[in-house]
Write a structure and sequence with these properties.
The structure is a single chain. The protein has about 800 residues and is an alpha/beta fold. Helices cover about 35% and strands about 15% of the residues. Strands 9-14-13-12-10-11 form a six-stranded mixed beta sheet. A four-stranded mixed beta sheet has the order 7-6-4-16, with no helix packed on it. Helix 4 runs antiparallel to helix 11. The radius of gyration is 27 Å and the shape is globular. Bound molecules: beta-D-glucopyranose. Beta-D-glucopyranose binds next to loops.
Length: about 800
């Protein structure tokens, strides 16, 4: 049988098939009652369920139901604990089932190409192996409860600015080794049953229409057998999407897209077979998700989930600095609690992932029960960046009364949001000015940081100790106090590097792209792969984090299929160590990073305990993508296998001779000097062209705006009216920024292409009307208005007609 639902497919009309491939509403797929095909419900998001109680509105004007807010992915990645990822996934799955959600839109696992990406807090790491392993763990956990996880955003979506109107220009090796490997692991090891395509183009083709990504790689190579869902409003050409194997366009946009499919069947642009294949996969998902008894449970233990959120945060806090072993603080220690974040924590980021938290802890609320003696608490700074002399004075006075100051600070709400990238890597200056004054009033400062992304830390010398809690979720405050007081020994390790300054970052010159094309010139040298290879001084390396105990590594042996060694907890406290396996090949013919993470394990040991740790090799340990033979290859030769506590601190070393696959070196070294030296900030266009291997697309804005240009590009519009709309939007954006909270809807509209107006208005606007709008924007007012008006009536009629046909078919049975 060609299709699993062959019989059902035979009974379905073209109208029904086409309608099934786009949404009915913001969160639901269509149901076809005549054939007993129910609809399925999707919901955000990666670190808690965001199911809207009232009518869905994508970016959350309507409040969502209360749910547990777990630490965000950037935080959990610091735990390096796959089992923890699974537990969180299971809890998310339980809450989703209780709220009748079928597909949970997460985890997000885009690679942190630049520290400035506004959504870095939602993603795991700069390293694909760690990202993939953690994502696969979440997927296993979520799916164990009978629903689907939906890893996102596939692929190469590392920039929020004009995220729906940008093209990632990337060479195949970088694509495979850095930007796809995490998804590969999530699909192969997590068995993800759904995947969300990203808004952007990849090498000139929208991710959602990209046959290379969706068919050749995802389905054919990785064996993905689930459904592909567009990001919300991310469908460009539904016909091309379906032809490439994208199953569900979201959110609902009336019948405009379904009509496009039917027209394409008639004019031969889409084959019936292509439509049927997508419908068959969609049916498989619908019946798997709605079949009797698939969902495991309907209620869950809210208190247990809160405790899990606390444990997750405890495991993910990173101790960056601990001069004179000031931490942990002893019971009875007199502390001053300073910082607005102690009163109102930063515990999650803004955007589609924002959870309506069931219960929220604060440091201020919990400090009295911590065993410490709190001499007082002061906000110290404003959240919106203005200096306040009164707040300052109170904080400085208080600091003098305490033995230790707990200074809670970090990135504000505006710095971490979907829809916008940061402009710089600094913590707001008013917080730092206060810190610099505090250290003069009391030198015993413990910096308690909250930020879901990396920041510059030139002020680190002001703190005796620094604890980085990232965005710790609803129970982040108690977890932080547990670590401060030593009830918990910190075991978080950085899942990303902390450069000294933004200018040092590998994509500095290319990010964000000024035009549509975003060249990934730094290639594979993302994060530590760059700093480590090019000896760039950084502050805190990838994998780094301190503990209250010490570990010793010994008895290393490199075996056929892995390594083993002895690990001893040589300190006086119980604690966990994250052991990291790095692989290097100094004699390599291709250009490579100095070393790469190829395995890790989190090991808990009681004080004095010793254990043997084994880390197996896998299919990724020695492979690289050969762009000439177009396959994964292995170079023959000697590899250095190291075990480290971070990428910058190796404790054990061995060698291994590996037989290769015999693929010839795909590069001519003399033509790629910067890549071979690792100094990739200076790659010329010519050298990048050589690496890219095909003519660069390099499309620039050409004067006329098109349906695929972002609304914020109306800045250039010929029409005065359009420029006025642009100014109004910009003012609205600025006003919301002044309030300190991003307005997600404005940000979304700002970065959305014109076609998004059709895709996001539930059928009110058709693509024909969008065409009219673009004509107006380009200065042809009358012609454009004509199209809009006639399009409006045509669209209304077409939608009604489609609905009528479906109901006639329903009646005919
Ligand atoms: C985001 C997705 C999210 C979707 C639905 C989009 O804007 O990029 O991550 O799942 O909205 O809210």
């Amino acid at each position: 049988m060609k299709y699993k639902y062959e019989e059902l497919l035979k009974n379905m009309t073209f109208e029904e098939k086409a309608a099934l491939l786009s949404g009915k509403s913001v969160w639901q797929s269509r149901n076809i009652d005549r054939l007993a095909i129910p609809s399925i419900y999707c919901s955000d998001g990666p670190h808690g369920i965001r199911k809207q109680a009232g009518e869905g509105d994508h970016l959350g004007l309507n409040a969502s139901l209360p749910a547990t807010c777990f630490p965000t992915a950037a935080t959990i990645a610091n735990s390096w604990n796959e089992r923890l990822g699974e537990l969180i996934g299971e809890a998310l799955g339980e809450e989703a089932v209780a709220q009748e959600v079928d597909i949970l839109l997460g985890p997000g696992l885009n690679i942190k190409r630049s520290p400035l990406c506004g959504r870095n807090f939602e993603y795991f790491s700069e390293d694909p192996y760690l990202s993939g392993k953690m994502a696969a763990a979440y997927v296993r956990g979520i799916q164990s409860r009978g629903i689907y996880a939906c890893p996102k955003h596939f692929a190469v979506n590392s920039q929020e600015l004009r995220r729906m109107a940008m093209n990632a220009v990337i060479d195949e090796r970088t694509l495979r080794e850095i930007y796809l490997e995490g998804f590969e692991i999530a699909v192969k090891e997590g068995n993800a049953k759904a995947i969300m395509t990203s808004y952007n183009e990849v090498n000139g083709e929208y991710a959602n229409e990209n046959k290379h990504l969706l068919q050749e790689i995802l389905r054919n190579e990785w064996g993905f057998d689930g459904i592909v869902i567009t990001d919300w409003g991310g469908s460009n050409d539904h016909v091309l999407g379906v032809a490439a194997g994208s199953n569900l366009e979201m959110p609902g946009c009336g019948f405009d897209s379904a009509l496009e499919l039917i027209a394409a069947l008639e004019n031969g642009k889409l084959k019936e077979e292509e439509l049927d294949r997508c419908v068959d996969q969609m049916l498989d998902a619908i019946f798997a998700l709605t079949g009797n008894g698939n969902k495991k449970k309907t209620d869950f233990d809210m208190a247990a989930h809160h405790n899990l959120a606390r444990m997750a945060s405890q495991e993910s806090i990173v101790l960056l600095k601990n001069q004179e072993d000031v931490l942990p603080l002893k019971p009875g220690c007199k502390v001053a609690l300073i910082g607005d974040f102690a009163f109102e924590p930063r515990y999650q980021g803004a955007g589609s992932s924002m959870v309506n938290t069931a219960k929220l802890e604060t440091m201020k609320g919990l400090i009295a029960d911590s065993g410490l003696v709190c001499v007082g608490s002061e906000r110290g700074y404003t959240r919106t960046g203005e200096e306040s002399a009164a707040l300052w004075k109170d904080a400085l006075d208080l600091a003098q009364k305490a033995e230790m100051v707990l200074f809670c600070f970090g990135l504000d709400e505006l710095s971490e949001s979907e829809g916008m990238d940061r402009m710089h890597m600094r913590i707001p200056q008013n917080q730092i000015t206060l810190l610099e004054a505090l250290v003069k009033a009391n030198p015993n400062i413990i910096g308690v940081m909250s930020a879901g992304a990396t920041v510059e830390m030139p002020w680190h010398y002001c703190c005796k100790a620094i604890l980085h809690g990232y965005l710790g979720g609803q129970a982040g405050a108690s977890a932080m106090l547990d670590v401060i007081t030593g009830r918990v020994n910190p075991s978080g390790r950085l899942s990303e590097s902390y450069p000294l300054k933004y200018e040092d970052t590998p994509a500095f010159r290319c990010y964000p792209s000024a035009e549509r094309d975003s060249e990934y010139r730094e290639s594979i040298f993302v994060g530590y792969r760059y700093y480590d290879t090019s000896n760039v001084r950084i502050l805190y390396p990838f994998g780094y984090g301190l503990s209250y105990t010490t570990f010793e590594y010994s008895d290393f042996s490199v075996e056929e299929d892995g390594v083993s060694f002895a690990l001893t907890n040589t300190g006086e406290r119980d604690g966990a160590e994250v052991v990291q396996l790095y692989v290097a090949m100094p004699s390599s013919q291709i250009f490579r990073a100095e070393k790469e993470l190829k395995g890790f394990k989190k090991v808990f040991l009681k004080s004095g305990e010793i254990t043997t740790v084994r880390i197996p090799f896998d299919d990724k340990t020695f492979r690289y993508w050969n762009v000439k033979t177009n396959r994964w290859a292995v170079e023959e030769g000697e590899y250095i296998i190291r075990i480290g506590t971070s990428v910058a601190d190796m404790r054990l070393e061995g060698v291994k001779q590996v037989a290769g696959t015999g693929d010839a070196c795909p590069y001519e070294k003399e033509k790629l000097p910067q890549y071979y030296s690792g100094l990739i900030q200076e790659v010329s266009l010519a050298e990048y062209q050589e690496l890219f291997g095909k003519p660069l697309i390099n499309r620039r804005w050409s004067g006329e705006l098109s349906a695929n240009d972002a609304i914020c590009q109306m800045y250039y519009a010929k029409s005065r009216l359009a420029r006025l709309v642009y100014r109004v939007l910009t003012n609205m954006r600025k006003k919301s920024e002044e309030k300190g909270k991003p307005d997600l809807n404005i940000l979304f509209i700002y970065n959305m292409p014109f076609r998004g107006i059709a895709k996001m208005t539930a059928g009110m606007v058709s693509m024909e009307m969008v065409d009219g709008m673009v004509t107006v924007v380009n200065g042809r007012f009358m012609k454009g208005m004509g199209k809009i008006i006639s399009g409006f009536f045509r669209n209304r009629k077409a939608n009604k007609e489609y609905e009528r046909k479906l109901s006639v078919q329903a009646k005919q049975g």
